[in-house]
């Protein structure tokens, strides 16, 4: 399977690295393009067998074409390439619908919209996948590719905006909590670097408690920490008095 990645920025570069380290695509079958060379040269140093080019046309003769440019550049990038079935189009452009994309390529071709988050650079992404005109096999392949870069989930296109807020924007919201907790720790005399590690490991632990037990729920895990009359319930109730739950709901909805 030959894969072209158009755009070697945060997302394109991370997907290229993820694919190159994965089991489904041979490194020499990956071509990455960008208007200038520095990002491509960096990739080439890391993966000497990877193909790089500043010419999108040269790369577009691939089985799967992943477009990873900013949303407002998608039209000018895709139109000249005249992509058509049996090629598969994969777009990571947030907010660009299948209907939008269909104006720039063969509208009947298989298409995927993929929304990773920035943890894809560590192969720890929550990646959302929606499909149109795709076979079951093509969809399974896409899930396999992105499950190697974290956790991938197939959802309907109409859920993408809300799910993007939870996952891509969600990285920023979680980090805002980390920053706030660090500020409190520093005020209490903990060194910033130590506070960052303490909070980050705690966030990872909380995530694993949920991800590694299908039968659990945040409420159950919170109950395990909150000793009646103890210190945790004081903090949890303080968060509620200050509108924490409401603030998070408003933030997620603001990003949809
Ligand atoms: N960042 C995030 O968390 C998420 C981003 N996305 C989506 O991913 C897409 C890419 O975002 P991101 O990677 O952050 O952006 P970047 O700006 O980091 O990457 C875009 C890349 O595209 C390159 N580029 C520009 N024009 C062309 C062209 N004509 N042909 C080939 N390459 C070109 C740019 O080159 P250069 O700048 O070197 O000139 C740059 O390297 C966006 O559509 C965004 O909506 C989706 C989910 C999450
Ligand atoms: O903030 C944004 O618009 C982009 C899309 C999803 C994450 N970052």
UniProtKB/TrEMBL annotation:
Organism, as annotated: Phocaeicola intestinalis
Q: In which pathway does it act?
A: Amino-acid biosynthesis; L-proline biosynthesis; L-proline from L-glutamate 5-semialdehyde: step 1/1
Q: Short name of one Pfam family for this protein? A: P5CR_dimer
Q: What class of enzyme is it?
A: oxidoreductase
Q: What is this protein called?
A: Pyrroline-5-carboxylate reductase
Localization in the cell: Cytoplasm
Recorded family membership:
Belongs to the pyrroline-5-carboxylate reductase family.
Sorted keywords for this record are:
Amino-acid biosynthesis, Cytoplasm, NADP, Oxidoreductase, Proline biosynthesis
According to the entry, every stretch annotated as the Pyrroline-5-carboxylate reductase catalytic N-terminal domain falls at 2-95
Top-level taxon of origin = Bacteria
Which EC numbers does the record give?
A: 1.5.1.2
Extract one GO molecular function annotation from the record.
pyrroline-5-carboxylate reductase activity
What PANTHER family does the record tag this protein with?
PYRROLINE-5-CARBOXYLATE REDUCTASE, PYRROLINE-5-CARBOXYLATE REDUCTASE 3
Its main localization is: cytoplasm
Looking up InterPro entries in the UniProt record yields: 6-PGluconate_DH-like_C_sf (IPR008927), NAD(P)-bd_dom_sf (IPR036291), P5C_Rdtase_cat_N (IPR028939), P5CR_dimer (IPR029036), Pyrroline-COOH_reductase (IPR000304)
What is the protein's known function? Answer: Catalyzes the reduction of 1-pyrroline-5-carboxylate (PCA) to L-proline.
């Amino acid at each position: 399977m030959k894969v072209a990645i158009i755009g070697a920025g945060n997302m394109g570069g991370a997907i290229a690295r993820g694919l190159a380290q994965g089991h489904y695509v041979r490194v020499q079958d990956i071509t990455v393009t960008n208007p200038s060379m520095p990002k491509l040269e960096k990739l080439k140093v890391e993966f000497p067998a990877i193909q790089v080019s500043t010419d999108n046309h040269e790369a577009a003769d691939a089985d799967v074409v992943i477009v990873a440019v900013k949303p407002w550049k998608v039209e000018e990038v895709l139109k000249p390439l005249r992509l058509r079935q049996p090629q598969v189009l994969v777009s990571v452009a947030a907010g660009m619908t299948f209907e939008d994309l269909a104006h720039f390529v063969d509208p009947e071709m298989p298409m995927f919209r993929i929304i990773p988050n920035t943890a894809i650079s560590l192969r720890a992404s929550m990646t959302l996948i929606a499909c149109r005109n795709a076979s079951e096999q093509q969809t399974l392949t896409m899930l396999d590719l992105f499950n190697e870069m974290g956790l991938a989930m197939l959802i309907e296109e109409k859920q993408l905006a809300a799910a993007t807020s939870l996952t891509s924007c969600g990285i920023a919201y979680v980090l805002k909590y980390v920053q706030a907790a660090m500020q409190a720790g520093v005020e209490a005399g903990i060194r910033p670097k130590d506070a960052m590690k303490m909070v980050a490991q705690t966030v990872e632990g909380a995530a694993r408690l949920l991800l590694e037990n299908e039968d659990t729920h945040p409420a159950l895990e919170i109950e395990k920490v909150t000793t009646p009359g103890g210190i945790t319930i004081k903090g949890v109730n303080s968060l509620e008095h200050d509108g924490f739950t409401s603030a998070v709901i408003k933030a997620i909805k603001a990003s949809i």
